Amino acid sequence: DAKTTQPPSMDCAEGRAANLPCNHSTISGNEYVYWYRQIHSQGPQYIIHGLKNNETNEMASLIITEDRKSSTLILPHATLRDTAVYYCIVRPGGSNYKLTFGKGTLLTVNP
Amino acid sequence: DGGITQSPKYLFRKEGQNVTLSCEQNLNHDAMYWYRQDPGQGLRLIYYSQIVNDFQKGDIAEGYSVSREKKESFPLTVTSAQKNPTAFYLCASSTPGHLGDGYTFGSGTRLTVV
C-alpha cells in the first residue's frame, strides 16, 4: 500500500474551514484515498473516500489533485466537536485489503 | 440501529491472567478486525477474519488469539504471553460495498494490566 504523509497537528478557528492535507506521492492507479477521524478514546469514524474525482458528503469534501499525489480533506465549518485525529489512508479498492492507520493529524478547533 | 458493540469499555486484569474482549456486530458484515492502539500512536492490526471459521494474523499477533465461530462475533483473548497488554483495543467490521469497503469501528475496550 502507498504511504501517506500528514502534518502531526493543525489548529482551526471555530466556524472556519479546516483544510487537512495529505501527501501520497507513491499512490497506485487502483488505490483509493480514505479519511477517518478519531475523537479521543473512541473508535475511528469513516468520513469519506475517493479515487480521482472530488467527493462531497454531509461531513466533508475530499479534493484529490489531478496527479493523485496529494489530497485535502475540507471541513467547511469546523465546530469544537470536530477536534480529533484525522487519518488519511490509501489502499486498493476491495474488501480484501486491510486499512493501515498511521499517526494522523490532530486537528484542534479553537473557540 | 446496527453497529458494533465492544464490551466492557474498561477492563482491569492482573498480570499473568488471560482476558477475553468481546466484539459483536449486527451489521451482517463479512469481515472483522482487531486493532491495538497505544498512546499517541496509530492503530496496529492484531488479527482479522474475512469469513466464519477463518482468520489471519495481522502485524502484531503474538500473545493474542481469536475465534470466529459466528458471523456476528469475533472475540479476542489477550494471553499471558503478551508482554505489554495494556492498551486500547478496537474492533471493526467491513463488507463489500459499504463505506467504500471501509471499516465500521466499535467504541473500544481499554485494558489495563496491573
Write the layout of secondary structure elements.
The complex is a heterodimer of chains A (111) and B (114).
Chain A: E1 9-13, E2 18-23, E3 31-38, E4 45-50, E5 55-56, E6 61-64, E7 70-75, E8 84-92, E9 105-110
Chain B: E1 4-7, E2 10-13, E3 19-25, E4 31-37, E5 43-51, E6 54-57, E7 64-66, E8 76-78, E9 87-94, E10 104-105, E11 109-113
Parallel strand pairs in B: 2-11
Antiparallel strand pairs in B: 1-3, 3-8, 4-5, 4-9, 5-6, 7-8, 9-10, 9-11
Report on this structure.
The complex is a heterodimer of chains A (111) and B (114). Helices cover 0% and strands 47% of the residues of chain A. Chain A is mainly β. In chain A, the strands form two sheets. In chain A, strands 1-9-8-3-4 form a five-stranded mixed β-sheet, with no helix packed on it. In chain A, 37% of the residues are buried. Chain B is an all-beta fold and 114 residues long. Helix content of chain B is 0%, strand content 49%. In chain B, strands 2, 4, 5, 6, 9, 10 and 11 form a seven-stranded mixed β-sheet that branches. Chain A binds chain B through residues 32, 34, 36, 41-46, 49, 87, 93-104, and chain B through 4, 6, 30-31, 33, 35, 40-43, 45, 48, 50, 58, 88, 90, 92, 94-96, 99-108, 110.
